[in-house]
Amino acid sequence: MGRILLVEDDVELCELLHEYFESEGLKVEWVHDGGEGLKRSFSNLYDMIILDLMLPGMDGLEVLKNLRKKSNVPVIILTAKGDDVDRIVGLELGADDYVPKPFNPRELLARIRAVLRRAKETKDHKLGSSEETISVGDLKLYPSSRTVLLNGMPVELTSTEYELLEFLVSSAGKLVSRQKLVQKVLKRSYSPFDRSVDVHISNLRKKLGPYKDGQKRIKTVRGEGYIFTLPKDSG
């Protein structure tokens, strides 16, 4: 059972989601303003935060920005239909996914389960010296603990960012289509208008930076997808 904090000022929606999700085995609590939502999010009591962006007091983007300074708890943001800028900013600030309103509760439940699955292996694991690794140049991934080291230093990633990175690194030097990343990592149907993958990739580029010689680690193939490049000295 996952424990969910719903930060949403629509009381009727909270009650509907509470009833539906608990019938599906999820434990749901809710608060109606951003400040209280941020305070509760820091409690380490929840497996996921469902965060509306339009909130009284402190808006959802500000909550997310402050939350990510101290916590990598998975977050799905709820956005008004058509608010593409807010969705992109939310993903840039570290949201794992977004769902536009109005939505079918079954769709939100599917997103929750997908993100919880991605986050499950990141909890309570420690890096072992004999652990299997995936290495490309100065980057090392430890799949069993979902740990990433760059030049020996840990890189903090969300669960979604980690899965995207592992998928790309496992195919280093080869093109991986956006469609495959959406279907295999985000676990949903592909839409050419969904830019979630692109924003997550942008976050990875910022966190990893280029190789020492300036070569890009993740190359965009316009209209196709991405390649995690091999360092030039790899032969």
Radius of gyration: 18 Å
Annotated CATH topology of the largest domain: Rossmann fold
β-sheet strand percentage = 15-25%
Mean pLDDT: 88
Separate helix tally: 8
Strand order of the largest sheet: 2-1-3-4-5
**What is the CATH class of the largest domain?**
Alpha Beta
Structural class: alpha/beta
Measured distance between first and last alpha carbons: 48 Å
Q: Any low-confidence stretches, pLDDT <50, length ≥5? A: 126-130
The beta-strand count equals 12
The largest pleated sheet is described as:
5 strands, parallel
| Assigned CATH architecture of the largest domain | 3-Layer(aba) Sandwich
Please outline what is shown here.
The chain has 235 residues and is of the alpha/beta class.
Notes on the protein architecture:
With 235 residues, this protein is an alpha/beta fold. It has 2 domains: 3-120, 3-Layer(aba) Sandwich (Rossmann fold); 134-234, Arc Repressor Mutant, subunit A, CATH 1.10.10.10. It is built from 8 helices and 12 strands. The strands form 3 sheets. It has a 5-stranded parallel β-sheet, with helices on both faces. A hairpin with a 2-residue loop joins strand 8 (147-150) and strand 9 (153-154). Helix 2 packs parallel to helix 3, helix 4 (84-92) runs parallel beside helix 8 and helix 6 packs across helix 8 (196-208). Mean pLDDT is 88; it is low at 126-130. Residues 3-116 form the Response regulatory domain. It holds the Pfam family Trans_reg_C. Residues 131-230 bind DNA.
